[in-house]
Amino acid sequence: MRINVECQSQEGEESVPCRFFLGKRPVKVMEVLDRWLGNHHHYFKVQGDDGAIYLLRHDTDKWDWNLTMFASGEAWNTALRDQSTKH
């Protein structure tokens, strides 16, 4: 799903998403959990202010952003609890 993303950059670092829009609804990025490079893409796994986890993909050739994965905050918290009880 194509999305609009606002980024911020810090001196000496690449730009990272700070807010994106799901339709007209803004989602503030509370934390960048992970990021990695692919062929012509940058991926950002972020936690939104709604508690959900999102995977954002930035096409560096076209300068497009896409939402490629979403997990609700409740589903994410349940998965973490399940993992912690296996140890």
How would you sum up this structure in a few lines?
Helices cover 14% and strands 59% of the residues. With 87 residues, it is mostly beta strands. It has one domain.
SS strand fraction: over 45%
Indicate the mean pLDDT. Answer: 84
Class by alpha and beta content: mainly beta
Give the oligomeric state.
Answer: single chain
Structural domains: how many:
1
- Helix-strand topology string: EEEEEEH
Radius of gyration: 14 Å
Distance between the termini: 36 Å
What share of residues is helical? Answer: 10-25%
Tally of individual helices: 1
**Low-confidence parts:** none
Task: Summarize the helices and strands and which ones pair or pack.
Blueprint: E1 2-8, E2 16-22, E3 25-38, E4 41-48, E5 53-59, E6 64-71, H1 73-84
Antiparallel strand pairs: 1-2, 1-6, 2-3, 3-4, 4-5, 5-6
